[in-house]
Design goal:
The chain has four helices and no strands. It is mainly alpha-helical and 115 residues long.
Length: 115
């Protein structure tokens, strides 16, 4: 059976998805903030202390955010193509936030249509 990279399945565990949404959103915002700090540091003073402190923090947040995106594959039914795009350095966290926002809108629309 071929793997369909573009398919989506419906969420199977809404409570798990809501919890993972929150955790992933915090991780994504934190990763984006550390990236901004690193970029501003490079453009301005290039302080080694900032790079030495924020660099590893950013790397750890990137790994955790990437693992959260992979978890969304199973919890939210994201396609593999979506997962690959969402773990791209520098833009993946922002893309993941946008995908979660769209999922919430879709979920609210589905609940409204059912009631």
């Amino acid at each position: 059976m071929p793997i369909d990279l573009f398919s989506r399945t419906s969420p199977t565990r809404p409570q798990s998805a809501a919890r993972l949404d929150t955790v992933l959103a915090v991780l994504a915002w934190a990763e984006t903030a550390t990236l901004v700090v690193l970029l501003v540091n490079i453009v301005t003073v290039h302080a080694e202390s900032v790079t030495g402190t924020v660099g590893p923090l950013h790397g750890g947040l990137y790994v955790l955010c990437s693992l959260g995106v992979v978890a969304m594959r199973w919890v939210r039914g994201w396609s593999w193509l979506t997962v690959v795009l969402a773990v791209l350095p520098a833009v993946g966290a922002i893309l993941a936030l946008e995908l979660m926002r769209r999922d919430r809108v879709r979920d609210r629309t589905a609940v409204t249509a059912m009631s």
